[in-house]
Design brief:
Helix content is 43%, strand content 19%. The chain contains 16 helices and twelve strands. The chain has a seven-stranded mixed β-sheet with strand order 1-2-3-7-4-6-5, sandwiched between helices.
Length: 432
């Protein structure tokens, strides 16, 4: 017996039904639009992988586009969506894999059928694996070729050393080259259970019609238990710096500090800290580092959340001759956040955050991702109004309290890729 839940506390209204096999279906009715976005999310990502299988979730994500028993060629798959003017894509993250498409409303049913066919009936031929592994190796090479991507990868390794979270999501050349078809099929059989999948659809849809259709094409899909993820273990006792020398025009700088998990009640405080510090052209870092001192063209901060941990990361590209000056200025702004935030600055950050969120909810793709990601990672979906209320409830005292807890010297990590060899000088600047 399918279980249905209707959530009516805000707009858009989200409706949920869990089928007998555990498959969770979410819809959000947006009758004013002509499109639908379908997200099919699987609860597996790079942190579910052992060291010798690093990158296998990402390889699977590539291979499901190569052919199923009903649609034997890549053109049969992409053509189903592109042939009606739609868009299809996928992505692998640390804790989930998502397959999505956006199409005009008349093509919703065949698009749902396609996504389910891809994750249930892909062939995973040896020939396609051989071709696609070389594509992934090139992708890994591309990441290494871009200094800013390399700095990001280095900061992940520093934040989560010897942990799956610290690895590249795509694995390594060695692990990708060593993958076999049996390993790929085993990975899918263990993780791609309907009870480990969420389908979320936003657009001009009727929930009951969607549920009936999905139930009809997936009722024979049997669930099974799926493996868990690797928890983060470890703590940082002292600040750390890593420098990779490259002959580039800029020094690419990445500063990371441990933060909170996606389930932590203070996560909205961290969001506002990041907004104040480095999101937007009126943020503290943008105004001080770019506008007043001209040290960088682009500088910004962002927050990453996982089930049991998180990070706040600052990125910038600077003149190598002014690298150490830039690091000093950035860290001074990070430290200044611990001194408190004026009421008017906090209110500005709240307006930016809530306004940005509400604008996102006008797009079917954003609404669909909002539902599916929250259900998969949190086990519940917060209404936009609930999040806005939580953001607006943050006080100046909350910011100062949490900044004092998280923005501490021992948790500081700095990674630099560029034409600099002064590692000792860089380490001497790591003070908050």
């Amino acid at each position: 017996m399918a279980i249905q839940t209707r959530i009516e506390t805000g707009r858009p209204t989200f409706q949920k039904t869990t089928l007998d096999n555990g498959l969770r279906i979410f819809t959000s009715a947006m009758p004013h639009v002509r499109s639908v976005t379908i997200n099919l999310l699987v609860g597996v990502g790079s942190r579910y992988e052992s060291d010798d299988r690093a990158g296998i979730s990402h390889v699977v994500e590539h291979l499901v586009f190569k052919g199923t028993t009903e649609r034997p060629t890549p053109a049969d798959i992409s053509g189903t969506i592109e042939g009606v003017g739609g868009v299809i894509n996928a992505g692998t993250e640390q804790e989930l894999t998502v397959y999505w498409c956006k199409v005009a409303r008349p093509y919703m049913e065949e698009s749902i059928d396609l996504l389910i066919d891809m994750v249930r009936n892909s062939v995973y031929s040896k020939e396609e694996l051989e071709r696609e592994r070389m594509v992934v190796v090139e992708e890994l090479g591309m990441v290494n070729d871009y200094p800013n991507y390399k700095a990001d990868a280095m900061i992940d390794e520093m934040l989560w050393p010897a942990q799956p979270l610290g690895r590249d999501i795509a694995g390594t050349r060695e692990t990708v080259m060593a993958m076999t078809r049996d390993m790929v099929v085993d990975h899918v059989e263990r993780h791609y259970s309907p009870s480990n999948i969420v389908i979320s659809i936003a657009g001009n849809v009727d929930h009951d019609d969607v549920v009936r259709y999905i139930d009809a094409i997936s009722h024979d899909w049997q669930p099974h238990a799926t493996p868990g993820w690797t928890p983060f273990t470890g703590s940082q006792a002292a600040p750390a710096a890593r420098l990779e020398y490259r002959k580039t025009e800029q020094a690419h700088l990445c500063i990371g500090l441990p933060a909170l998990s996606v389930t932590h009640p203070d996560r909205f405080i961290v969001d506002l800290m990041s907004v104040i510090l480095g999101e937007g052209m009126t943020s503290r870092l943008f105004m001080e580092v770019r506008e007043r001192r001209g040290l960088a063209y682009d500088i910004h901060s962002e927050v990453s959340y996982f089930r049991d941990c998180g990070a706040m990361v600052i990125n910038a590209g600077v003149d190598p001759k002014r690298l150490h000056n830039a690091v000093e200025v950035i860290l001074a702004e990070v430290a200044r956040l611990r001194q408190g935030v004026p009421s008017d600055e906090l209110q500005k950050a709240k307006r930016l955050s809530t306004g940005r969120l509400m604008l996102r909810m006008e797009d079917t793709k954003s609404v669909s991702a909002w539902m599916g990601t929250q259900e998969l990672l949190l086990g519940k979906v917060l209404e936009v109004e609930q999040v806005v209320e939580s953001i607006n409830a943050v006080t100046e005292q909350d910011i100062q309290r949490l900044a004092g807890q998280l923005l501490v010297e021992k948790g500081l990590n700095v990674a630099v890729v560029g034409p600099s060899k002064a590692a000792r000088k860089l380490e001497s600047l790591l003070k908050l």
